[in-house]
Design goal:
The protein is α/β, with parallel strands linked by helices. The chain has 10 helices and 8 strands.
Amino acid sequence: MKKKIAAFDLDGTLLDAYAAVTEAFNCALGKLGYPPISRETLKRAVGKGDVNLAGRFVREPDIHRLLSLYKENQIRFFEGRIKLMDGCLELLDFLKGKNFRLGVATNRSEYAVAPLLEELNIKQYFDIICTADSVRNPKPHPEMLFKIMEFCGSSDRNEMFFAGDMNIDYLTGRNAVIDTYILLTGSSLREELENLEDINLFDNLVTLKKYLADKI
């Protein structure tokens, strides 16, 4: 395996922030008079950016007000409500020990990403962070992956892999023609993923690290 660059989605892949996001989102919904939604409902709805998320639960005229309230509240819910996925630090340390360059490719908005990484003390692992605000075309467009690859000084797609947890991540990697690994720890269900063409599925980051250790 001739890899030297690794790109990761965040939510459902490296970290679990669903509890914090649900509380912040429900706080914003309540202020606008909408009923709360369950953690599982929100978990299944995330991944395509904040505007798409809001549009699923409020009327169109309320989308931007909801997002403003959500943005105001989200970061204060991080403390004690977010955690790293099992095996995250071990995988990041392993890759750094192999002199990999690491990047983040997330459809989250930029305002929340740095506080998330700082709260979990993993920001220092990453050479570049791509959010929905830093590209013209969010996932499943491959722009984020190409931006990470270019930043890391490579034009060879065989030198990079991407790991995510959703159908949208699978499509992003496929659109980029980059080796892609999908974790069963996030928003997409196994039955939604396992029949996708040439998909590389892993139960969690622990099993992904074992696979990579045999390849790198």
